[in-house]
Amino acid sequence: MNALQKLNERLSSKPAATLEVEDLCVSYRTVRGPFNAVDNVSFTVEPGMTLGLVGESGCGKSTVVKAIMNLLSEIAEASGKVRLDGRNILGLSEQELRKIRWTQVSLITQSAMNSLDPVYCIGDQIVESILAHEKIPHRVAWARAEEMFALVGLPASRLREFPHQFSGGMRQRAVIAMALSLNAGLLLADEPTTALDPIMQDQIMARIRGIHAHMRRSMILVTHDIAVVSETCERTVVMYAGQVVETGATADVLQQPRHPYTMGLKNAFPKLPVRGQPKEPLISIPGTVPNLLFPPIGCRFASRCPFVTELCREITPPLVVTADGHGAACHYTEKAAFFRDAAQLAETWQAKEVQA
Questions:
Q1: For residue 214, how many other CB atoms are within 10 A of its CB?
Q2: Which residues does 75 contact at the CB level (< 8 Å), separation at least 6?
Q3: Which residues of the chain have pLDDT under 70?
Q4: φ/ψ of residue 146, rounded to 5
Q5: In Å, what is the CA distance from 310 to each residue of 175, 243, 260, 306?
Q6: Given this model, what pLDDT does residue 228 score?
Q7: Whole-angstrom Cα distance, residue 262 to residue 328?
Q8: SS3 state of residue 253
Q9: DSSP assignment, residue 353?
Q10: What does DSSP assign to residue 91?
Q11: What's the burial of 17, exposed, middle or buried (CB within 10 Å: 0-12/13-18/19+)?
Q12: Helix-strand-coil split of the chain, %, nearest 5
């Protein structure tokens, strides 16, 4: 058995990771006071599972991922627990984090151009990440990089080229190859198709789904696209204004949502037309996300919710998870069926916005 085969065998023997996020809070220090970007977020990723983290821009999805990787800025403060295979990695020293990153948890970033060094060829950057953790000859690391390029559909000859010589989709695939190079047990994909056109987005997501089916790594997919979640993720966590508002099996969350915000998200995405029936209009959620410098009392979705009551404005609803694993942070989950029917009507969301 040659050196590359031994490396591949050792890396392929790594188990998929278990991630437990418990009461994660992240706040940023500002001159006007703390900005509470993430507030008591909890979820679990079982080995081999793909979990979708969904919500509109600014809801705290990417901040959760940065907290898991310990990549928050100096003005951020994080609390709670992030247990990777039972070990709390939140607050580890930089030296300890270097041993974990890429080997146990790896990251696919939003912008591939910003995550690649423009003055080094792509191959050297992948090899550097491998050699930082594996005591192997350079030629073996390069051969591993060639295999990773083949896995994401790129020719090995282009390893010697620089990031600016790649198209946007090719750069994103190169970043995926780097993230997979050490077969980390947990893969964090932070909106990996944000800067790409729709055709390339579909190709990249198809590639990610194929790789996941082949390697069975645990994965968190951060996105605002419900269609991507429905095709890719076994479980879904819906976030709004820094909090988890709904969680459960993806089919349950998308087909039988229990929180009005999830119902609104579904309305905002196009549906395939049915022959002989009029095209369904898109229905937007009125209003804006509350200012997290001064979070409102009660439910944070109250000012935009068409079903709001005084109870919603005064008391924060707890996230209640039922026996089937489906949970929602709403005072009126028992009325979810009625809400779902009403939420499909545009006039429901056109009511005058109520200020929290």
A1: 9
A2: 28, 29, 30
A3: 1, 112-113, 195, 272-274, 276, 278, 351-356
A4: -60, -40
A5: 48, 20, 16, 12
A6: 87
A7: 10
A8: helix
A9: P
A10: T
A11: buried
A12: 40, 20, 40
Which pLDDT belongs to residue 1? 56
The answer to whether 112 and 174 have CB atoms below 8 angstroms apart is yes
CA distance 308 to 335: 12
Residues 281/300, Cβ–Cβ less than 8 Å: no
Tell me the per-residue pLDDT of 144-202, one tens digit each, with 9 for 90 and over.
999 999 999 999 999 999 999 998 889 989 999 999 999 999 999 998 877 677 888 88
Query: Which residue, chain included where needed, has tokens 């209009």?
Result: 281
d(CA 56, CA 289): 9
Alpha-carbon span 309 to 287, nearest angstrom:
17
For 302-354, give the DSSP string.
GGG-TT--HHHHHSPPP-EE-TTS-EE--TTGGGHHHHHHHHTSHHHHTSPPP
Two tokens, residue 127: 């090899």
The pLDDT of residue 350 is 83
Cα–Cα distance, 49 to 28 (Å, whole number): 31
Cα separations (Å) of 290 from 60, 243, 355? Answer: 13, 12, 10
pLDDT computed for residue 168 by the predictor: 85
Model pLDDT, residue 111: 72
Please report, for residues 134, 138, 247, the alpha-carbon distance to residue 180 in angstroms, rounded to integers and kept in the order given: 14, 18, 28
CB 70 within 8 A of CB 92: yes
Burial class (CB in 10 A: 0-12, 13-18, 19+), 271: exposed
Residue count (the chain): 356
Q: What is the pTM of this model?
A: 0.92
Helix, strand, or coil (residue 295): coil
Give one word for 91, left, alpha or beta, with left for phi > 0 and alpha for psi -120 to 50. left
